[in-house]
Prior knowledge:
By secondary structure, the protein is mainly β. Helices cover 10% and strands 36% of the residues. It has one domain (31-200): Trefoil (Acidic Fibroblast Growth Factor, subunit A), CATH 2.80.10. It has one helix spanning 2-23, and strands spanning 35-40, 45-53, 61-66, 76-80, 97-102, 108-115, 122-127, 139-142, 153-158, 164-171, 180-185, 194-200. Strands 1, 2, 3, 4, 5, 6, 7, 8, 9, 10, 11 and 12 form a 12-stranded antiparallel β-sheet that branches. The radius of gyration is 20 Å and the shape is globular. It comes from Cepphus grylle.
Amino acid sequence: xxxxxxxxxxxxxxxxxxxxxxxxxxxxxxxxxxxxxxxxxxxxxxxxxxxxxxxxxxxxxxxxxxxxxxxxxxxxxxxxxxxxxxxxxxxxxxxxxxxxxxxxxxxxxxxxxxxxxxxxxxxxxxxxxxxxxxxxxxxxxxxxxxxxxxxxxxxxxxxxxxxxxxxxxxxxxxxxxxxxxxxxxxxxxxxxxxxxxxxxxxxxxxxxxxxxxx
Length: 214
């Protein structure tokens, strides 16, 4: 009887340890402050921006998709909905509101009720100055687990207009020939899955003071 009780105690302790580990961030979690490229898994192009404005619609800085993996204009920084809400090194949770700030121009990924120039979906632009824009810069990370994992394909749903960040394959001509249109779509489908690719990732930690760059 004593041996059985000991066995049950050990099994209970093992179960409790497993539950506690389940609450910890995984080593491959995407974290606040990380700088990365995002690959559209359907069309194999990376989210991109540059100092080229739309010739129609909002006239704001354009956002496109590019095939090249080494383009320096495809880096985005993960930030919180507001300053201080996503401390450096903290894992991004599924369902969390974030901003994506274009590293080279300091503008945020943005969408609004303008038609996109090629597909007539919803225009996606880069907006703001030095990382400061408005409420239309906020996106929800949609994924299936607890945290956004680097190996996962995730969706980004816009808070203000409820569209999904998408690509359906339309290509621009001059002056950005071959680049794909990025837009917002009202439905969740295979055109709006994205995966974290190249970048500088902050080591996941529940204590933002403890981190390393990989």
